[in-house]
Amino acid sequence: METDKFPLTFRFSFGINIIVMLKMLGDKKTIRLMLMGVATLLLFLHSPTFADECLKYEPEVVTLTGTLHKEIFPGFPNYSSIKKGDHADKVFILRLDQAICVVVEPPDESNESAEDVLDIQLDGIRHQVPNWPKVNEQLKSTKVVVRGSLYHQQWGFEHTKVLMAVESISFIA
Q1: Gap between the Cα atoms of 161 and 66, Å rounded
Q2: What whole-number distance in Å separates Cα of residue 66 and Cα of residue 146?
């Protein structure tokens, strides 16, 4: 049997104290505002936490839906400017339909929590798509479902804050 965090006597006296405090404040508008504030606080206390709604980094496997884009970023040696001599680094980005957040679970020290993630660089996509050279030439903003493990940006050639090691990819007609 689950025990209640707050015994009935505490809840009753807490409720009485709120009513007394509201009466001391006076006008009905203030009382309504206070009651709305208390109701909002109670809803907040019973809602899921931020981490409950977020995805987790590797080794967790996730499935995401979005649009596949090919983008060019400055590559080695300086990762700053193609015009100044850096290699053109062609990468595939999954633009998500909806922003996600990703959290770190201890003892993970190689990743960082990330919020409002819309773009994810796909790692290993060339190995997961049959007939890759032909698909690569025809690729223009294609809708896909991608399955894999997420990890956080650590190197200059990783161009989004969250990346995915791709296990499989399916094209949506």
Answers
A1: 17
A2: 8
